[in-house]
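pasting Large ribosomal subunit protein bL9 for the record, 153 residues
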Amino acid sequence: MKLILTAAVDNLGVEGDIVEVKPGYGRNYLLPRGLAVVATKGSQKHAEELIRARQSKLVRDRDHARELKEQLDALEGVSITVKTSEKGKLFGSVMASDVAKAIAEANGPTVDSSMIKLDKGHVKTTGSFSAPVVLASDIEAVVNFEVVASNAK
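structre below
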């Protein structure tokens, strides 16, 4: 069954791709969820328009990603205050969303937490750390941040 994707589908393709799938997968999963449409001559023209729009957006996004990379690489003073016990042990852990919030509080650009890649997905100790921020497939910035203890009673 030949379909045109209207949204990105894992392990299949991105919006505008023309794909060949088994009839059951297309009929029972992709079409009912609105993730694809049947490939006809008219829909193939529409797919070509989607691909052109995606490519022009990609160029615009790469320029924006480079600007964000420069801002993030130059950013200093990113600090996350966490509650700790009297012995210095963290209550919980520092997640990517906490790092994104700290970047915004340090007058940095707004970054989605899904772009921040922490080792093991979280930080469980105080100290200085760095985390890569994936802005595009080939553009990556590094954010340095510090986890500071605040004693909770």
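The radius of gyration is 22 Å.
Strands lie at 2-5, 18-20, 36-38, 79-84, 127-136, 139-151.
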